[in-house]
Amino acid sequence: MGLPNKYYHLFKALYNCTEGSVHVNGRQSPLFKIDTGVRQGYVAAPELLNAVIDYIMDQMLNRLQIGEKYGDRFPADSDFADYTALIYTSAAVLKEALKTLSEESLKVRLHIS
């Protein structure tokens, strides 16, 4: 996915066998297994999300080869935090981009809504 193996294995180890609990009104719940998601307050969480989003967008843009080429890239998106805006001049091209974006997202088990 464009992430060096050593970092992939590091992040995987950080999330392996993760458990959590909820603290409400002075009482703590029993521990439960966390299978998906990103740890709250985890400093790498935004970077992890952005890395995945950038990968998906690059895959989509490379597949479509549309828009104005800038160097060896086709910039057609702007993203901040967990928001991404696609920038196209026609509805037909945007529709194709959304279809391709959905397909590429599913390859990394990310569902676009």
Number of E-type strands:
6
Task: Give the strand line-up of the largest sheet.
Answer: 1-4
The Cα radius of gyration reads: 18 Å
Structural class, from helix and strand content? alpha+beta
Compute the number of helices: 3
Q: How would a crystallographer describe the biggest sheet?
A: 2 strands, antiparallel
Give the SSE order as H and E letters: HEEEEHEEH
Helix content: 40-55%
Proportion of beta-strand residues: 5-15%
Separation of the first and last Cα atoms: 22 Å
Average pLDDT score: 78
Shape: elongated
Which stretches are poorly predicted, pLDDT < 50 over at least 5 residues? none
Domain module count: 1
Note down, in words, how this protein is organized.
This protein is of the alpha+beta class and 113 residues long. It has one domain (5-107). It is built from 3 helices and 6 strands; from the N terminus they run αββββαββα. It has helices at residues 5-15, 45-64, 91-107, and strands at 19-20, 23-24, 27-28, 32-33, 77-80, 83-86. A two-stranded antiparallel sheet has the order 1-4. α2 (45-64) packs across α3. The longest helix is centred in the middle third of the chain and has 20 residues, at 45-64. It is elongated. 9% of the residues are buried. The model has no long low-confidence stretch (mean pLDDT 78).
Strands, helices and their partners?
Elements: H1 5-15, E1 19-20, E2 23-24, E3 27-28, E4 32-33, H2 45-64, E5 77-80, E6 83-86, H3 91-107
Q: How would you describe this structure in keywords?
A:
single chain, 113 residues, alpha+beta, two-stranded antiparallel sheet, two-stranded antiparallel ribbon, 6 strands
